[in-house]
Amino acid sequence: MTVTIPAPGRPTPVALSTAPNAGPDSFYACYFPENEWFKLQVASVVNFFRNNGYPVEMDVMNSCELSSGPTRWAEQQIRRARNVLIFLSPGLLRLSGVDEDDPETHQEHERVWYELALLKKIFLQTHSASKMVCIALPNTNIKPQELPLWAELIYKWPEDEQKIFKRLNDKPIIQPWKC
């Protein structure tokens, strides 16, 4: 059994687990594969969290488990995850605005479209984006007017690393109210 101890100054992980799909204290990474550079950046951040004791699941790190079908696997991961780390990008935002009745538009990236449809459904049912942790990587062109309601709170990587840790531990930073 290997347990990763977080570096000083980092919050204690919610669960230290050796099983890849360990119950309610697992996390899931949702992203649109913009290009190889973007996928590597997402994997790097996911590995950072994994190395600090946060079991984050990512499709390219679990290719063997995807045999049941990528959409079915993604749905299972999102439903069991405590939080979903959503890596914002122009492609992901474009897909998040696609009408569910337009299958041709989302056919190429069906898994990502399905993840976004499921997250939108969770948001509409709960009236809360508490399950979603939206992260913007450096050099990612995101236009505020394209953001869906569930993505209004965005963490910038790596500047907001500590805020993300607090969010993953259910200790969000409460912003002061501005008059």
TrEMBL record:
Q: Which Pfam families does this entry report, sorted A to Z? A: SEFIR (PF08357)
Gene3D superfamilies linked: 3.40.50.11530
| InterPro entries cross-referenced by the UniProt entry | SEFIR_dom
Q: Which domain of life is it from?
A: Eukaryota
- The residue ranges of the SEFIR domain are 41-168
What is the name listed in the Swiss-Prot or TrEMBL entry for this protein? SEFIR domain-containing protein
Q: Species name for this entry? A: Pocillopora damicornis
Give the source lineage, highest ranks first: Eukaryota, Metazoa, Cnidaria, Anthozoa, Hexacorallia
